[in-house]
Design brief:
By secondary structure, the protein is mainly alpha-helical. It is 85% helix and 0% strand. It has eight helices and no strands. Helix 2 crosses helix 8. It is rod-shaped. The chain starts with 12 loop residues before the first helix and ends with a helix.
Length: 259
């Protein structure tokens, strides 16, 4: 079956092949019908891309005959690898590119699920036609067609499964990167605010120190003024007492003089 390659620590290609029952018998059937299918695929794929180009949701991706031919050729080469049944590293790389590109350009899985449906349906019809003679399908050809149909469906489901897997992996990485970018932006913004707050704190500390010095000088001046006022108040009080005593002495002298 060729060399396989792991896609992630949790997902292995071998387990997918077993789950889909894409065993050596099915792979041998694919390989046997490979030449017939390769004759059919280019026309089927080109018709499919012409078909989807008529739908506004995806028309932007296939808006010219050159793009349609390019997409059809790439898919034809991709399916040649599937029909060989080797499922090698080249195949994994190819399906990974398909899923990743679809994720980046925004071609959602629902559209290329439609592509697999179209591909399977038209390919089955044309293979049956090729296996038929004037009398229709013989018993031998019916058996051969049934085996091929089963193997082709399994291979298509495997490819669709992997394409969606890599589509989701790409989207997940993009989401993680956006979160990291947002965190980085937030960190830079917080750092800038911290620097502003630090600078403001330093300026506030300097202002507080200056105000403290002014308050101390003001307090000292107030204390000196209070002392001076107190001394002046004491002097006035003494003067009042002396004046009172002088008044009493003058009155006594006047009284004696009268006598």
């Amino acid at each position: 079956m060729g060399k396989t390659t792991p896609m992630s620590p949790n997902v292995q290609l071998v387990s997918r092949l077993k789950f889909l029952r894409l065993d050596t018998t099915a792979i041998a059937t694919l390989h046997k019908m490979s030449a017939t299918v390769q004759e059919i695929l280019p026309g089927v794929l080109e018709q499919f891309y012409t078909h989807v180009a008529q739908h506004p949701e995806v028309a932007q991706f296939f808006d010219s005959s050159d793009r349609i031919k390019f997409a059809a050729n790439r898919q034809t080469e991709h399916w040649k690898m599937i029909l060989k049944g080797t499922f090698s590293e080249d195949y994994i790389s190819s399906v990974q590119q398909i899923g990743s590109v679809h994720a980046r350009i925004g071609l959602e899985p629902q559209y290329y699920l439609a592509g697999y449906t179209y591909l399977i349906d038209e390919t089955m019809k044309l293979v049956m036609k090729k296996l038929s003679d004037r009398k229709g399908l013989s018993t031998k050809n019916i058996e051969e067609f049934t085996k091929f149909q089963s193997a082709f469906l399994r291979a298509a489901m495997l490819d669709m499964d992997l394409a969606i897997y890599f589509f989701n992996e790409t989207r997940k990485k993009e989401a993680q990167q956006k979160i990291l970018d947002m965190a980085d932006h937030f960190e830079k913004e917080v750092l800038g605010i911290s620097e502003i707050v630090s600078s403001a704190s330093y300026e506030l500390e300097a202002s507080a120190r200056s105000m403290t010095e002014i308050a101390e000088r003001t307090f000292k001046g107030s204390a000196d003024a209070s002392s001076s006022i107190l001394q002046a108040s004491n002097g006035v009080e003494h003067a009042a007492i002396s004046a009172d005593e002088l008044g009493k002495a003058v009155a006594e002298i006047s009284e004696r003089t009268a006598q």
